[in-house]
From TrEMBL:
Organism: Shouchella clausii (strain KSM-K16)
GO annotation, cellular component aspect: plasma membrane
Domain called Major facilitator superfamily (MFS) profile: residue spans: 13-471
GO molecular function: transmembrane transporter activity
Name this polypeptide is given: DMT superfamily drug/metabolite transporter
Topology of the protein relative to the lipid bilayer: Multi-pass membrane protein
InterPro entries from the UniProt entry: EmrB-like, MFS, MFS_dom, MFS_trans_sf
Spans annotated as Disordered: 473-493
Keywords: Cell membrane, Membrane, Transmembrane, Transmembrane helix, Transport
Subcellular compartments: Cell membrane
Segments passing through the bilayer: 12-31, 51-71, 78-96, 108-126, 138-159, 165-188, 200-218, 224-245, 266-291, 297-315, 327-347, 359-378, 399-417, 448-466
NCBIfam families in the cross-refs: efflux_EmrB
Family statement: Belongs to the major facilitator superfamily. EmrB family.
Pfam families: MFS_1
């Protein structure tokens, strides 16, 4: 048991935070299937409606780096109540919206709340459990992190087929309100507000850096890489990010401390997570394109196809956590990546007549492999950080996941689009013209999946360098947000 870990973790607090995180993560993928319906309802273009997901991701990417400062300065109760209130208000506004700008405003408010929840929950999990039990604890966190967004397409597919898209928000609103009320009456912690200064220039540079990169890569799939809007914002983002990182090294108390990369296992876990996330997000985008656009399968059945994989990931997360505590992250990461590589390779052989059963089995096995990757790799890296670095580590991981998801999706969609045009030219005159577009797109999707194979191989090579991590020596200074502050206040129990 480490010095900074309480003897009894605050299970009541963790349960409330998990409920909030589940709702926020479910919201991430719930709207994807409904975008065509929203587009028709408001008579807007695909490029415009895409802002409902791009804008959400942008707000997350801009706000998440600030969470390291917020976690150190404010109590868990104060931060969670603020986050959940924003999320609930955004959900209500989106549900009752009758114009696209109002719906967009609701999504932005939702995102400002959800951006705080995930780093906050992860930080509480890290400070509440000793290193030797963190795997099991983070396994429960992983269940929420993976299962909630995975069931989103199935649930939203069924709702969109039978009801209007606003029901997605109506359904979520009571759960958000109940979670908020539980937090008001049952969530307490002993942490007092800590006097610390937020560097405004860091916030501006962070917003320009992460926002520019996220926007540029997100817009690439729609506008193309030759667009000034795409490469211009990426260049501005990179410059902003370089200036942001430079400034962090100059500050005595940085907003996001990049010195965490001097810890080799954390640096390695970031590199592996980046490559895996790029492949995972891209795969989650390519599958619906193949199923719905090429095969013409309904939104509900498209979502249903992904459900077994989601259930497998949900069931495996706690098991993976316990295996991590016993064997460490290396063997799990290597096994998971081998499964991911093999199943991703099979996805490079898709055809116009690939059976529905085969698709379910392949996708489910791919998710089984992924279930052994994300949380063990991430937890092993975070385990090496001293206690005061935990907020910076969780904020960095969540920020990189947003960036990797955007970059991976944009790259794979671009590869798919480019290869589809090339294959259409190659196949012209050789097959039935009615099937030309579909066959060319299948070949393009296969080529994009081959890129995920190469990316996963890079991650596999890196995984062989993983070692079981232990917390590095920390200074004896008074640390804000230490674990003792997270014990529940006895006078409110």
């Amino acid at each position: 048991m480490t010095e900074n870990t309480p003897t009894k973790p605050p299970y009541k607090m963790i349960a409330i935070l998990l409920a909030g995180a589940f709702i926020a993560l479910l919201n991430n993928t719930l709207l994807n299937v409904a975008l065509p319906s929203i587009m028709a309802d408001f008579d807007i273009s695909p490029a415009t409606v895409q802002w409902l997901t791009t804008g959400y991701m942008l707000v997350n990417g801009i706000l998440i780096p600030i969470t390291a400062f917020l976690i150190q300065k404010f109590s868990v109760r104060g931060l969670f109540l603020t986050a959940m209130t924003l999320f609930t208000l955004g959900t209500a506004l989106a549900g009752f919206s009758h114009s696209f700008p109002v719906l967009m405003a609701g999504r932005v408010i939702q995102a400002s709340g959800s951006a705080i929840m995930m780093p906050l929950l992860m930080n509480v999990m890290l400070t509440s459990f000793p290193v030797e039990k963190r795997g099991s604890a983070m396994g429960i966190f992983g269940l929420v992190m993976v299962f909630a967004p995975a069931i989103g397409p199935t649930l939203s597919g069924w709702i969109v087929e039978h009801y209007e898209w606003r029901v997605l928000f109506y359904m979520m609103l009571p759960f958000a309100i109940v979670t908020l009320l539980l937090a008001v009456f049952r969530l307490y912690d002993n942490k007092q507000s800590v006097h610390t200064h937020l560097d405004v220039m860091s916030v501006i540079l962070s917003s320009i850096g992460f926002g520019g990169i996220l926007y540029g890569f997100s817009a690439a799939g729609d506008k193309g890489w030759a667009s000034l809007e795409v490469y211009g914002t990426i260049v501005i983002g990179v410059v902003g990010l370089v200036l942001f990182i430079t400034r962090q090294f100059q500050l005595e108390k940085p907003m996001l401390d990049f010195r965490i990369y001097k810890y080799p296992m954390f640096a390695l876990s970031s590199a592996i997570s980046l490559t895996v996330t790029m492949g995972m997000f891209g795969g989650m985008l390519l599958m619906p394109l193949y199923i719905q656009t090429v095969r013409g399968i309904s939104p509900f059945h498209a979502g249903l196809l992904m459900l077994p994989g989601a259930l497998i990931m949900g069931a495996m997360s706690p098991i993976t956590g316990r295996l991590f505590d016993k064997f460490g992250g290396r063997i799990l990461a290597i096994t998971g990546l081998l499964i991911t590589i093999v199943t991703s390779y099979f996805f490079t052989t898709l055809a116009l007549d690939t059976s529905y059963t085969e698709l379910i089995m392949l996708y489910s096995f791919r998710m089984f492999g992924m279930s052994m990757l994300m949380m063990p790799v991430m937890t092993n890296g975070l385990n090496q950080l001293p206690a005061r670095m935990n907020p910076h580590g969780t904020a960095m991981n969540n920020t990189l996941n947003q960036v990797a998801g955007a970059v991976g999706s944009a790259l794979l969609v671009t590869i798919m689009s480019t290869q589809t045009r090339i294959h259409a030219e190659e196949l012209a005159g050789t097959i039935d013209p009615a099937l030309l577009g579909q066959q060319a797109m299948v070949e393009g999707i296969n080529d994009a999946f081959m890129v995920t194979v190469y990316v996963s191989i890079i991650a596999l090579v890196l995984a062989f360098f993983m070692k079981r991590a232990k917390p590095a020596e920390d200074s004896n200074e008074e640390l804000p947000g230490r674990a003792e502050d997270l014990t529940e206040a006895p006078n409110h129990s």
